Amino acid sequence: MSTRRILLGVTGASGMPYTFKLAKVLGETPGMELHLILSKAAKQVLALEADEPLEALTTCATAVYSDDDLAAPPASGSWLHQGMVICPCSMNSLAAVSQGLAGSLLHRAADVTLKEGRPLVLVPRETPLNRVHLRNLLSASEAGAVILPAMPAFYHRPRSVADVVDHLVARILDRLGVSHELSKRWNGLPED
Question: Where are the alpha helices (DSSP H) in 1-84?
Answer without folding.
Answer: 16-28, 40-49, 54-58
